[in-house]
Specification:
Layout (H helix, E strand, L loop, with lengths): L10 E3 L4 E3 L2 E4 L2 E3 L2 E3 L2 E9 L4 E3 L2 E8 L2 E3 L2 E9 L4 E3 L2 E3 L1 E4 L4 E3 L2 E3 L14 E4 L1
Parallel strand pairs: 1-4, 2-5, 3-6, 4-6, 5-7, 6-8, 7-9, 8-10, 9-11, 10-12, 10-13, 11-14, 12-15, 13-16
């Protein structure tokens, strides 16, 4: 699910750029650079292999190949691609971890709070 820069939707932080502060908004956000701060996006957050995040991520979906030092919370799905290095807790209803991606933290597979009564067998954990 890699973002097509030519589609012109969302925001992009290029390799070599460093942003200090919170990234908040709607639409997709793709990071090849470095962010020091919280990322809260109503949409897809994509951290490419050169991307580095020092802060928490909250998004509809996240697709991470870079490094994240902070918790990640998604409402739909989290994909961790090699060579992802995640140091923080994860909360998502669906988690996909590719070989070569690493997590140092706790993993919570849970539906949104409104659906907290869903039985554990209805939640999907996919590990390749």
């Amino acid at each position: 699910m890699f973002w097509n820069r030519e589609e012109g939707r969302g925001s992009y932080l290029a390799k070599g750029l460093r942003f200090v502060g919170d990234v908040l908004g709607a639409g997709d956000f793709v990071c090849d650079g470095e962010v020091e701060g919280r990322i809260e996006i109503d949409g897809l957050v994509q951290i490419d292999s050169d991307g580095k995040i020092h802060g928490c991520i909250e998004a509809t979906e996240a697709d991470i190949a870079g490094s994240v030092d902070g918790d990640v919370v998604t409402r739909v799905r989290l994909i961790l691609r090699a060579p992802c290095r995640l140091k923080g807790d994860v909360m998502s209803p669906e988690l996909v971890v590719e070989p070569g991606a690493t997590i140092l933290g706790q993993i919570h597979i849970a539906q949104q709070e409104v659906e907290a009564t869903v039985a554990p067998e209805d939640v999907t954990l996919v590990v390749y």
